[in-house]
């Protein structure tokens, strides 16, 4: 039983020479024509509120307010990230063309897990990459990722390509979240649950039956290869700060292995709180941001983005006396939100809820009342955002970019002119247990592999031909 829509492959030439003759790439949606298209395709604006709707009953208008959560206003940072992800989703399949002999050998080697004498191709090189998107909580990282993926089918079914049989299902992407306890086992089980939901398989049951994490990771590697997974989104990566001992670095090593050994691209979503984990792992940071880094900062009162954001939101005003949006109102709106998009949407929604059936107007007083009564628990964080002072932001590790992390970005070649972010004193280091260095040939740290037992190998994984359903 599957809950996903499996789309039959429809192959189209991309116009890119490197993508020609690759069925996994040609089955993806057509490329955008212009860079600006990445903004227009991400935007979502529900129908604007009409004068007639503003005259509806109090309760009806209150029920309409959540439409504000459906508004997706793209920021310039989304354009840069969208272009990177579009490239990554196709680039990842360059080294994994299912019609090549090398890819078949690679698939067989991974499917057998070292059993059967099938060697992993020594000259195979991953074409996958990682992109790190970081912002304070509520600035739209997850919204961007989900909006971007909406135009991509999640599962594509292949039967034949240019007269050659190609029986397989291609899972274009999977969306995972680092669990609150940052355990690797929980992340792996989440992966298998996603695959089972998409394809109607029973990998979760097999994974849970495994007694150790090493064979579970090997199973994850084989399944990801068997389903031709192209892109993996990992959200809430800042939860790694709660990992015990060396588990945080262990999971980062797994992310690097997914890029290098499996050839699957990654989008990493995190708040600045992840810095305390990444600062101690330069090697993993370089790979996780090999396709660039996008940092989204809160909007300032004088930012053009803030003005445009407010203008868009103002179209969804349900109070009877809708007035022109003045600078004073916009500034009061900013004071109640700190320029954070999630806080700003919440403040506008709550302000309308308070005024509908009452004064029926949104002004400075409406936002001041909302801040004092409905958003009092958020005021410490909002005041810290408004101040921009490191000594205040330090109290909230989700808000502050540290000096040490910024120095590390410069070391890795980041252009500081591309993004302006708050900097201040570094976080306190997390206590970590040192991990033993791995001396494998490809210099890629991997979990220790146990000797294979019959119970550790998934019986329905491909053995002879990776492209048999």
From TrEMBL:
Query: What top-level branch of life does the organism fall under?
Result: Bacteria
Give the transmembrane ranges: none
Q: Which residue intervals define the domain ORC1/DEAH AAA+ ATPase in the entry?
A: 137-277
* Record keywords, A-Z: ATP-binding, Nucleotide-binding
In this chain, the stretch annotated as Disordered covers 423-469
Looking up InterPro entries in the UniProt record yields: AAA_22, P-loop_NTPase
The molecule here is called ATP-binding protein
Q: Which organism is it from?
A: Herminiimonas contaminans
């Amino acid at each position: 039983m599957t809950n996903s829509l499996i789309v039959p492959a429809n192959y189209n030439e991309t116009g890119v020479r490197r993508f020609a003759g690759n069925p996994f790439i040609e089955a993806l949606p057509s490329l955008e024509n212009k860079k600006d298209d990445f903004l227009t395709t991400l935007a979502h604006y529900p129908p604007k509120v009409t004068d007639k709707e503003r005259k509806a009953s109090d309760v009806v208008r209150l029920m309409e307010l959540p439409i504000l959560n459906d508004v997706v206003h793209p920021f310039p940072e989304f354009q840069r990230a969208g272009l990177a992800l579009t490239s990554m989703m196709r680039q990842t399949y360059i080294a994994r063309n299912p019609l090549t002999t090398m890819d078949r050998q690679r698939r067989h080697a991974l499917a057998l897990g070292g059993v059967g004498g099938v060697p992993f191709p020594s000259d195979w090189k991953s074409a996958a990459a990682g992109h790190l998107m970081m912002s304070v909580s509520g600035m739209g990282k997850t919204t961007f990722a989900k909006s971007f993926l909406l135009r991509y089918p999640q599962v594509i079914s292949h039967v034949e390509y240019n007269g050659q049989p190609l029986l397989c299902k291609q899972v274009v992407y999977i969306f995972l979240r680092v669990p609150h306890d940052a355990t690797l086992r929980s992340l792996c089980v989440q992966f298998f649950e996603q695959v089972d939901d998409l394809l109607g398989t029973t990998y979760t049951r097999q994974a849970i039956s495994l007694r150790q994490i090493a064979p579970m990771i090997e199973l994850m590697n084989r399944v990801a290869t068997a389903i031709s997974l192209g892109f993996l989104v990992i959200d809430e990566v800042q939860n790694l700060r709660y990992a015990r001992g060396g588990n945080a670095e262990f999971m980062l090593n797994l992310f690097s292995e997914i890029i290098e050994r499996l050839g699957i691209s990654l989008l990493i979503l995190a708040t600045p709180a992840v810095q305390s984990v990444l600062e101690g792992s330069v090697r993993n940071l370089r790979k996780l941001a090999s396709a660039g880094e996008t940092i989204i900062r809160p909007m300032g009162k004088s930012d053009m983005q803030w003005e445009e954001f407010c203008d868009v939101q103002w179209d969804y005003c349900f109070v009877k006396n809708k007035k022109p949006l003045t600078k004073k109102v916009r500034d009061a709106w900013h004071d109640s939100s700190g320029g954070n998009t999630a806080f700003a949407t919440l403040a506008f929604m709550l302000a309308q809820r308070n005024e509908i059936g009452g004064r029926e107007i949104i002004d400075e007083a409406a936002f001041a009342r909302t801040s004092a009564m409905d958003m009092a628990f958020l005021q410490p964080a909002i005041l810290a955002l408004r101040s921009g002072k490191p000594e205040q932001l330090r109290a909230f590790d989700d808000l502050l970019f540290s000096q040490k992390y910024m120095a590390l970005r410069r070391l890795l070649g980041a252009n500081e002119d591309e993004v302006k972010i708050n900097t201040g004193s570094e976080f306190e280091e997390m206590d970590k247990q040192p991990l033993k260095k791995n001396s494998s040939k490809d210099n890629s740290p991997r979990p220790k592999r146990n000797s294979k037992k019959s119970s550790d190998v998934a019986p329905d994984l491909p053995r002879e031909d990776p492209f048999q359903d």
